[in-house]
Amino acid sequence: MASADSARVLIVDDEPEAIATLAKFLTSRGFVTDTASNGAEAYDCVMAHAFDVVMTDLRMPGMDGADFLARMRVERPEMPVVVMTGHTALDDDERVWARAGVAAVLHKPLNLREVSDILRALAS
Question: CA 22, CA 100: separation in Å to the nearest integer?
């Protein structure tokens, strides 16, 4: 695993502006970022590269975040995952996420300082 100062993070979201903002912020904090706009693209990235943490949205067209996580866990069960969601009523069951190996659930709009703190903790 890389040091927290150079951790490689995959950001998965179907909103280009959200990806750009998060990637720019994390890069300015020393993280190395890669991006994917849906679950299928994210799965291909995870199979091709080593990441210290994956951050994924849940609701995306095509392969959504939950399907991506289930498929990824077969090949990369140890990879830390942070879920980003704006759907608190449906996606807030922490026991379900704990069983799925999710390290943290962050609610949109994201608090960027909180994101950075969580990623540093997971990458160290």
Answer: 24
CA pseudo-torsion sign 105, 86, 107, 112: positive
Residue 10 corresponds to which tokens in the numbers above?
């995959």
Quote the tokens at residue 83.
Answer: 């879920």
Q: Return the biggest CA–CA distance within the chain.
A: 35
Q: Which residue has the tokens 């912020």?
A: 25
| Mean pLDDT per 10-residue section of the chain, whose length is 124 residues | 73 94 95 95 95 91 85 90 76 59 87 93 88
SS3 content of the chain, % helix, strand, coil (to 5): 50, 20, 30
Nearest Cα to Cα of residue 83 among 44, 122, 124: 122
Q: Which 3 state secondary structure label does DSSP give 109?
A: coil
